[in-house]
Each structure stands twice: as C-alpha cells, then as structure tokens.
Amino acid sequence: MNKLLQVTDLSKNYGSRIGCEGVAFDLYPGEVLGIVGESGSGKTTLLRCLSAQLEPSAGRIAYDMRTQGLTDIWSLSEPERRMLMRTDWGIVHQNARDGLRMEVSAGANVGERLMAVGARHYGNIRTEAEDWLTKVEIDTGRIDDLPATFSGGMQQRLQIARNLVTQPRLVFMDEPTSGLDVSVQARLLDLIRTLVNRLGIACVIVTHDLGVVRLLAHRLMVMRRGRVVEHGLTDQVLDDPQHPYTQLLVSSILPV
Ligand SMILES: Nc1ncnc2c1ncn2[C@@H]1O[C@H](COP(=O)(O)OP(=O)(O)OP(=O)(O)O)[C@@H](O)[C@H]1O
C-alpha cells in the first residue's frame, strides 16, 4: 500500500522557542494516528504544520496527491494547497466556530464544500447536505438554521459533516471532543469512530485524553517538549509504555 503522508525531520520554532522538533512518521490510507502529550508539548504546533496551516521551520511533509504521488506540500502553489485543504483533506477544529461559517445556514456549511469540488446542481447539493445532517444525527428540519442556534455538540457534528462531505482521504482533528459534556463527548466519539471506519478515512487526532486515543487511534505518538518520546501501536503504548514520561502519563490518567 502507498503511503498517504510521509513526514521527515519536521521542526517548527517560534523564535528561540521550540514548537516541535525532529518529528518523522508515515501514515497509510485509513490509518488513525493519535498524538498525545501534556499542555505545551507541541501537539497543536505539529498538527497545524501537518495540515499546512503553519509553515514548518525545517523538514518535509509529503502527501500522496491523486495525480502526482508523494509531493512536498510546500512545493505546491498556494491555490493548489488551498484546494487540497478544501477537498482531499478535512480539518476539524477544537472550537467548532473556527471550522464553521457562522453567518450561513447549516445546509450551506455542508453544501459549500461540495461546491468546492464542482457540485452545481442546487437540488443535489441540498439532498446531499440533508443526507449528511442525518449521518451526524442532526434533524434535517434544522437545515436552514444558523449554526449559532445549535448546541456545542451539534455544532461539532455539523463541522464533521462539513469536513467529511467531500469524502476526504485525510482528516486532521484537534481535540474534537473537548469542551463538551461527558455524555455528549461519548456519543460524538462513537460517531467519529463509525464514520472514520466506514469511510476508511485516515486521521491525525491531537488530544490530551488517552480515552479518546484508546477508542480511535491505531497508532499513538507521545510528545514531550516538542519531541516524540514514544511511538507505536496504541494498545502497546498504553498497556506497556516504555518511556518514563509515557509511564507517568498513563499511570496518572488510567486506573491501574
Ligand atoms: N504562536 C506562538 N508563538 C510563540 N510560541 C508558541 C506559539 N504557539 C505555540 N508556542 C509554543 O510552542 C510550544 C508548543 O505549543 P503547542 O500549542 O503546540 O502545545 P500543545 O501540546 O498543543 O499544548 P495545549 O495542549 O495546551 O494546546 C509551547 O512552548 C508554546 O508556548
């Protein structure tokens, strides 16, 4: 199987401060990679670099473009990169408001992404938007409502629908369930797991919640002070952590 993403020696500095340093990994189609670590360990910096929202200071991020194969994403033109981000990739932000257009309806939020990949027929776009609202458990009667009238959990589900409607091959998620009630979190996680598995989407998920990665991620990277200190199969890393920092993280969060 071809690699979907190949990351080599990736670093991002903010002046003299290290955001992340020397990160390298491959991601294959359909694979879910979790990135965990304490606050300030570089998770968000890494995710923003991987998803082309932030230009790295050094290193290479190559993505398997449908026509060109593995291509350095920073060798693409700005419009090409933006197109990639709008179609073949999805980015689910921690705060749904950052990933939604709050001034247009729920249906338009979903339909807009379809238009980015060339859909023009209003009736088809609306039908597809309704279909996706149903998939993320939002009543289709709310299709013309503004996202601001939705609850936090509904906004997050709408953001997921907006991202998945174009059938991306890779989705980046930054703490997708934080800030929600525990019961809402559990349902949302279950929904993400079902959709990601059913559609065979590759995912990179940043979280500080080991329960989230246990449920969703095939592989896990543990970060500390900008560097990856441990990387392996999720169950292996969580059940038999090798690095002292991972041992501390696991013992402090998971009941023994
Ligand atoms: N815009 C910025 N300017 C300067 N330093 C930054 C900036 N963003 C992040 N940093 C620094 O980079 C390091 C990594 O931060 P980052 O936000 O990536 O960590 P994180 O693991 O995502 O933390 P959290 O879980 O709290 O969101 C920290 O030392 C942080 O202070």
**SSE arrangement, N to C:** EEEHEEHEHHHHEHEHEEHH
Number of helices: 10
Distance between the termini: 37 Å
What do the pLDDT scores average to? 93
Class by alpha and beta content: alpha/beta
- Ligand set: adenosine-5'-triphosphate
**DSSP strand content:** 25-35%
Cα Rg = 18 Å
**Largest beta-sheet characterization:** 6 strands, mixed
**Low-pLDDT segments:** none
Total count of strands = 10
The residue fraction in helices comes out at 25-40%
Strand order of the largest sheet: 6-7-8-3-9-10
Please tell me what the overall shape is: globular
SSE map:
Elements: E1 5-14, E2 17-27, E3 32-37, H1 43-50, E4 58-65, E5 69-72, H2 78-87, E6 89-92, H3 96-99, H4 106-116, H5 122-135, H6 152-164, E7 170-174, H7 182-199, E8 202-206, H8 210-216, E9 219-224, E10 227-233, H9 234-239, H10 244-253
Parallel strand pairs: 3-8, 3-9, 6-7, 7-8
Antiparallel strand pairs: 1-2, 1-4, 4-5, 9-10
Helix pairs in contact: 4-5, 4-6, 5-6, 6-7
Adenosine-5'-triphosphate binds near residues 40, 42, 43 and 45.
Question: Which tags fit this structure?
Answer:
10 strands; binds adenosine-5'-triphosphate; 256 residues; alpha/beta; four-stranded antiparallel β-sheet
Q: What would your notes on this structure say?
A:
The protein is an alpha/beta fold and 256 residues long. It has a domain of 66 residues. The protein has ten helices and ten strands. The strands form two sheets. A six-stranded mixed β-sheet has the order 6-7-8-3-9-10, sandwiched between helices. A four-stranded antiparallel β-sheet has the order 2-1-4-5, with helices on one face. A hairpin with a 2-residue loop joins strand 1 and strand 2. Helix 5 crosses helix 6 and helix 6 runs parallel beside helix 7. 40% of the residues are buried. The mean pLDDT is 93. The site of adenosine-5'-triphosphate has 12 residues, from strand 2 and helix 1. Adenosine-5'-triphosphate binds next to strand 2 and helix 1. This is Phosphonate C-P lyase system protein PhnK. InterPro entries: AAA+_ATPase, ABC_transporter-like_ATP-bd, ABC_transporter-like_CS, P-loop_NTPase, PhnK. Keywords: ATP-binding, Lyase, Nucleotide-binding. GO terms for molecular function: ATP binding; ATP hydrolysis activity; lyase activity.
